[in-house]
Amino acid sequence: MRLRWESRCRSVYRAAVLEARIQWQISTAVLKTLLGIGLGYGQTQTEIATLEFVDFVDADGNPVNFKTHTGEMRIDRLRHKTGVIGRWWVPPELVPIICEVVARTTRDVKKNPHELAILGNAGNNQPRFSELSNI
Fold this sequence. Notes:
Largest sheet: 3 strands, antiparallel
Structural class: alpha+beta
Number of strands: 3
């Protein structure tokens, strides 16, 4: 019985990985950013929506210039769910995609007073997967 259960788990896992790979290939840069941060680091929608520009730092801990950055990147921030400081390394494949998305986010303090890195279509601080799917 246990072998059948293990076999079923492996096939479900393979299907989930295949589905994620297909979704990645057909996704826009915004959705790749959300998938990478959400799946890669276990960040919830609220945590992604509250990421600020200063949360993205280079290897030396300096804030990233999203228009010119090409090196290593990590996310340093206080985790909202647990209140624990977190530090997440960003894989090199995801760095240019995040930079592309965040570079387009307005820095106008009237439109983005909290300096959030990813805004929804309506300019609010809650990007939702459904509203970002047309980007």
